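Archive transcription. Copying these from loose printouts into the bound notebook so they stop getting lost. Printout 1 of 2:
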Amino acid sequence: MKNAINPRIRRQGPFLVDDLKKAPTGIAGLDRITGGGLPCGLTTLIEGGPGSGKTVLALQTIVNGARLFNEPGIFVAFEERSTRLIANASRLGWDLKALQRKKLFFLDAHVRSDLVIAGGFDFAGMLAILAAKADEMGAKRIVFDAVDVVLTLLNDPQIEQREIYRLNEWLLERDMTSMITCKRTEAGTILEPLGFMQFMVDCSVILRHDVVQSVSQRSLRVLKYRGSAFEENESPFLIGRNGLDVADTWLLDRNSHPVSNKRVSSGVRRLDSVLGGGYFEGSSVLITGAPGTAKSTLGGAFAQAACRYGYRTLVVSYDMGSSQYVRNLASVNIRLDRFETNGMLQVASSRTVVASAETHLMHIKSLAESHRARCVVIDPASALSQMGNALTASSVAERLVDWAKASGITLLCTSLLDRPASELESTPLQISTLADTWIHLSYQVRAGERNRGLSVIKSRGTAHSNQVRELILESKGVTLADAYAAGGEVLMGTLRWEREREARIVQSEGKAVLMQKEIMLRAAEAELEGRIESLQREAEAKRIERKALTLNSSVRQTANELDRLRMRELRGSDAPTPKRR
C-alpha cells in the first residue's frame, strides 16, 4: 500500500518501508529500525556521550560491509590509534588483520595534545590521500571517528564549519556511504559549534549510556532519516561478545503467530487433566504465588516433561544457581541432571542486578537460539522488574511473550506476588493479560498448618475447573488432591484428611448395615423359596391324587356298566351286548 503523501513509502507487514537505496549495517535490530540500513552514498551522524558505543557501531558497520556485503571500507581514526582499534576488535571476534589486506584500510589521523598549529589548516591533504586510497581499493564505505577532536583544536568556529562543509562536499562527490562520529554532552547537545551537523547530514543516530539505580542502560534512537520511514522510539542495545546487539522494540503482528492444537504436559498428571491435556504448544504460561508456594517446582516439572517428550528446553533461573536448582528439584523426584547430560536441557542462572531488563531479554533470546530451545522457563520473570528496571520491565515482558509466540516456543514464566489473593488482579510485569494460561499458587493456613493451593485463573481455549486444589509435594513426585469442600470452604491438609477419614468411616458403617440387611433379605428369600418348594410338592401330590381319583371313578363306572350288562344277560334280556372299550 503506497503512502498518500510520499508514494515511495509502502507498508510491509506492520511496518513502513521505502524504495531508498540503503547500505545494511549487519546489525539486525538497527537494520530493522532503519528499514534496511543507513542511506547508501550519503552521510550518517553518530553522536553520543563517552562510552556510549559510537566507535563500536561505526567499526562494526564498516567491518560487516567488508565481510558480509563485499563493500571495502576506510576507517579514519582521529582519537584512537588504529593498533588499539584492531586489538579491541579482536575481542569481538573480528579478524581485522585478514580484512586489512584487501577490504579495510585504517588511517591514523590522531592529533597529539601538544600540537602547535601555525598558519592555515584544512582537510584537503588528508582527503586527497583518502581519495587515492578509495580509488585503489574500490571503497564503498568510510568512517570519520571523533572528527570533533581535531576540529576543536582549531579554536576557530568559522574554520571548523568550513572544514565540515568541505568534508561533506567531498563525501557527496565520492558517493560513499559515510559515518561521522562526534561527542554529545550530558545535556543532549553536540559540542558547539558543531551542532549544525545534525541539519547537514541525511541520517542522525543518537546513542545514550545512562545509569538508573546503579544499573547500566544503553539505548539508540534514530533522530532523522531523510526520505525514509524509520522507528522513532528509543531502542535498547548492549555491547556483547559480537559487538552491538540492538533490541527489537516493535511488537510482532500477532495474527501471524503460529497456532497449534498439540499439548505439552505440565509434568503433573492431575494438572494435565484439569487443563484438558496440558499446555498448548507455543502458548505462554504464567505461574504466580508467594515465596515457597512451589512455583519453581512446577517450572521444573514442566521442563522435565518437555525433555521427556523430546523438546530441547532452556531454564533461566534468577533465584539460584543451576546446580542448586537441579539438586533442589530432585527432592520431589524431578530429575533434570540426566537431561543436562544428554544436552536436551540447559539451565542458566543470573543475577538481575548486574544488567538491565533489556540486556536480560537479549541474553535469554541468545541462549534460546543457540540451544535451539522449543520450551523456555523463566524463574522468576518478576525479577526483571527489580532495581533500575521499573520503567522498561513491562515492555520487556510483552516483547518476551511476542518473541516466544513468533518462534513457536512454549514459554513458562513464574512471578512472585507480594499481595494477598483477594487483591489479585494483575502481576508486577502486567504479563498476566498476555499469558494464555494463568495458574495461581496460594497458602491456606488453618489448624496450625500451612498448605499449598492451586487454582487455574484462566486458560484460553480450555475448559477448566474453578475449584482450588491442594498441591502436594512428596518424595515420589508432585500431584494434586481432589477438591474437597465442606461447610462452604475447601479443606486441605489434616482437616481434609480428617473429614475424608470420617467420610470413610461413615461409608464403612453404611456398607456394614447394607450387608446385614442383605443377609437378612437373603435368609427371608431362602425361607420363602423353601416354603414355595414345599407348597409346590404338596400341589403336585394333590394333582396326582386328583388324577387317581378321576381314574378310579372312571374304572368304577365301567365296572358298574359291565355288571349291569352281565345281569341283563343272565336274566335273558335281549338287549345288545355293549362294545368293549
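Printout 2 of 2:
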Amino acid sequence: MADTPMRPYTATTLAPIALALSLIGSAHGQQTDAAPSDAKPVPAQAPAAAAADRAAPLAPVVVTATRTPRIQLDVPASVDVVDQQQLTDAQLRVNLSEGLARVPGLVILNRQNYAQDLQLSIRGFGARSSFGERGVRLYVDGVPASFPDGQGQVSHFPLNAADHVEVLRGPFSALYGNSSGGVVALTTDLKPQPTDLDVSFAYGGFNTFRVGFDGKGGQDANAFNLDADRFRTDGYRTHSAVRRDSTNLAALLGDTPLGKAKIFINALYMPSAQDAMGLTSAQAAAAPNAASPQALQFNTRKATHQNTIGTTLDSNLGPLLLTSTAWLGSRDVTQYQAIPTTTQAAPTSPGGVIQFNRDFGGTDLRLTYARGAWTTSGGLDYERMNERRKGFNNFVGTALGIEGTLRRDEMNVVTALAPYLQTEWRIADQWIADAGVRSSRVKIDNTNQLLGNGAPSSTLSFTGVEPTAGLVYRITPRFSAYASYGRGFETPTLNELAYRPDGNPGLNTALQAARSNNGEIGFKAALAPTLHYTLALFDTHTKSDLVVQTNSGGRSSYSNVGRTRRRGVEASLDWSLTPRWSTALGVQAIKATFSSAFLTCAAAPCTTPTLPVAGGNKLPGVPARTLFAELKYHPGPADLTLEVRASSKLYADDRNTDSAPGYAIADFAIAKTLDLGRYKPRVFGRIDNLAGNTYIGSVIVNESNSRYFEPSPGRTWLVGMDLPL
C-alpha cells in the first residue's frame, strides 16, 4: 500500500520537541488533598467550611466542574479523577480506554481501528459517532482537543506524561458550551520536582510495539515535561495496521513579570492507519479477525498529521486572577473510503477520497474574583477553524484505492463565540450553591471553490443559552448530597453537515442544533482515607437530537429527531481493604430511548425516509448496563491486578433490528520494581481477555449495508518495562 504523502515529520514541525437514594456513584480514590499541578490559587473559604475540609478525609481535587480547585465533596456534579498510576501502570499507554474503563457513565471502546479513533460516549452523548469523538468536550492542559463545531480526537492524548484525567458528566458539562455532553480533560505532570528521565517499552500480540522517552523535572517555580512515543501494530484484524508517532512538551515558568505561564506543544504524525471497516453478523461469526471485502478492494486507510501549541497565563491583578489561554494548530487528513465506483461516477458525487486541511485556534480569557463566601468567574471564549475540504475519486480507470479526479473543493469557516459567568456561594457551614450561564454562538460559512469566484455560498448559525445550577449539602464533613440542573446545546459538526441524505452536493442545511435539559441528584462519601464512594441519578431530555440517517462505506449523513430521553444511575467504590488489598467498582444502568417515532433511510442516497423507527426504541451504541471491577494485591514481591469488564448488548441501528451481544471479560496483570543498584526498572506482563471470549467490542451505528460490527480479539498478551535513567 502506498502511503499518502504528508508533511515531513521533523524537529521543525514538532517545535521545541524537546459523567432517590442509595446505590453507589462516581468518585475514585486519588487520595490527595493538594490541588492538581494546574490548579489556580484556591479562593478564601468561610472559616467553618475550611475547618470542615480539614476534618474530612483525603479526597480528590477537581477543577472541571467549577473552574477552581475544589474537593469532590463540595462539587454538585459527577466527576472522577483517574490518576497517573491508574492510567499507566502495566498498560500499553496508547489508548485512553485502557485507564478510563473504571469511570461509570463513560463508555470508551477500543474499536481495533486506529483510522477511526476510539468510540467515546458519556451518558449516551457521542454514541452515534462513526469516527472521532463528538458530543463530549476534550482538553489537554486546558487547550481544547475538540474543534469549535464539536468534533474532537483523543489519539494525541499524552498518557505517559499525564498527572491525571478528569471526567465530568451531567448538567455542569454545559458550562463548556457546544457539544458538552461531558468533559474529558487530561493534565500533564508539570510541577517542580527532581529530574526524572525514563525509557519505556512494551511489546505484545499482533506485533504490537511501543517505545517512549519521558523526561520531567524542575526547581523553584519552573518545570518541564517531555514525552515522545512511537507506536506500531499489525492489528488484530486484517488490514488494520497503524504507524503513529507523537510528541508532547510542556513547560512551566512560574515567575514571569506577567505571572505564571505554561506552554504546551503537541504533535501527532500518523502516516498510515488501515481501515478494516465493519462486518455483517454472518461475517463476524465466520471470521471475526477479517477485514470487510470492500476495505481490501478499495484499500481503505487514513493519514493524519496534527500540531498544536498553546499557552496559559495566570496573572494576579490585585483581588482578581486573570487566566488567559490561547492556542493555534493544524490538522491534515486524507482518508480513502469504500464507495462503489458507480456511485462515485454520479455527477453530484464528492468521490471516495476525503482530504481536508484545517487551521484552528482560539482564546479563553477568564477573570476570577474571590472574597469571603463568594467565588465568581467570568470570561469570553472564542474559537475559529478554517478548513479546505476536497474530494477525489478513489479510482483511476479500473484501478481502485488510488486518488483520482477532483470532485469536491470547498472552503469552510467555523467560528464560536461564548461569554460565560459562574459563581459559587458558601451559604453556610454546610451549604454550597453553584450557578452559571453560557451564551454560545456557532457560525459556519461554506463556499464551493469548484465553481469559481461566483460560487454559491451557504451560512449556518446556531445559538444557545446554557444555564446551570447546583446545590451541595455537607451532611457531615465526610458525606455530602447534591442536586444540579443544566441545559445543553449541541450543534451538528462540520463532518455531519458535509453530506446530504439525497446525495446532492453542499452542506446539509436542514440540520438543527440539539438541545437538552439535564437533571441530577447524587451522594458522595469519603468515610476514611481508604474508602470513597458516590451515587448519581440522572435524567436527560433532548429535543432535535442528531441521528445517523444514512451510513455507507464510511460516509454518514444525519437528521434530527423529535425527542430522546436518557435516565439512569451510576455508582462507584474505591476501598483499600488492608495495606495489601484494594478494590474498585464502577457500574452504570441507563435507559436511553427515542421518545417519539420517526422515519429513517434504508440506504444512500435517500430523498424520502420510509423506514419507521418506533418511539421507545433504544438508542444504538449505548449499553444499558456496564460494569468495571478491580482487585489489587500489593505484597511487595510483585503487584497483582485482576480486572473484570462487562457490558450488556449494543443495538446497532435505530430500528433495533440487530445488536452485538453483551459480554464479560477478565484481565490480569503482574508488575514488579527490580532493584539493580543504580537502576530500578519496573517490569510487567498482562493477559487481556483471560478466557479468550469472542465478542463484539463496538458497533458502527446505522451502517446501511448491515456492516455494523467491529470484533475484539480473544486472549492477548503484553509485556513491558519502565527504565529510569
